[in-house]
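Bumping my old thread because nobody answered last time. Still need a sequence for this structure:
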């Protein structure tokens, strides 16, 4: 049974959103969480269900390639809308795999878990000349990920927002990289932001944000926030 709490914002009637934090190559756990979502939706049907992945699909974990394969496949349950957002690790990967990437960009990606991603494709971090074997459909998927999504009183982004900038004017680098001043902001915001990027031991529910990167790749849970009306609950794997 899903334990629900009062949420800091609400969705329109008949809508439910499942939002998943950073998988970071943990393909088996993402698949298990998709199964839990499908089970929950079958047990509790709703008029409109949306699944949002908040980014950071690659790097650090054991099987980034399988995570992208999973995201390229069908949704957990037929009829669900799926929204895939870009994270800073996808940005690092795409920049490093560019044919004109300077050594500093390659090194930065490898220093932040890129080697594990290459190994999941059977490639060596020591031989960049072979990196063009990453499948084209995987690269196209990463390039096609959105920077944000809005629904009801919520705004979804990988890292957060620049608090004093209108949502329509947010810079993609802030949406994918920001921590402060967003995390500790105490002023008004145009919407409650649901985000990953900054690991926490348990979901963080604040007046202006809901953080759900619970460190799956570091031994924590892979967390899905379940939002409906003015309530929130969590599924984990």
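Sorry it took so long. Here it is:
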């Amino acid at each position: 049974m899903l334990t629900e709490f009062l949420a800091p914002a609400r969705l329109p009637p008949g809508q439910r959103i499942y939002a998943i934090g950073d998988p970071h190559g943990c393909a088996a756990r993402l698949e298990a969480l998709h199964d839990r979502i499908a089970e929950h939706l079958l047990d509790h049907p709703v008029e409109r269900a949306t699944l949002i992945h908040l980014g950071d699909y690659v790097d650090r974990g054991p099987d980034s390639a399988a995570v992208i394969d999973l995201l390229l496949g069908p949704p957990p349950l037929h009829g669900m809308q799926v929204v895939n957002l870009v994270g800073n690790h996808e940005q690092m990967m795409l920049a490093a795999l560019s044919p004109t990437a300077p050594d500093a960009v390659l090194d930065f990606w490898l220093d932040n878990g890129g080697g594990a991603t290459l190994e999941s494709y059977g490639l060596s971090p020591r031989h960049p000349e072979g990196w063009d074997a990453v499948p084209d459909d995987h690269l196209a998927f990463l390039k096609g990920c959105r920077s944000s999504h809005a629904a009801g009183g919520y705004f979804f982004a990988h890292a957060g927002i620049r608090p004093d900038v209108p949502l329509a004017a947010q810079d993609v680098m802030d949406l994918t990289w920001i921590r402060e001043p967003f995390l500790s902001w105490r002023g008004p915001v145009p919407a409650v932001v649901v985000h990953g990027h900054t690991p926490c031991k348990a979901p963080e529910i604040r007046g202006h944000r809901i953080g759900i990167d619970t460190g799956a790749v570091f031994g924590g849970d892979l967390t899905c926030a379940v939002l409906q009306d003015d309530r929130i609950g969590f599924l984990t794997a």
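The chain has a mean pLDDT of 97. Let me know if any region looks off to you.
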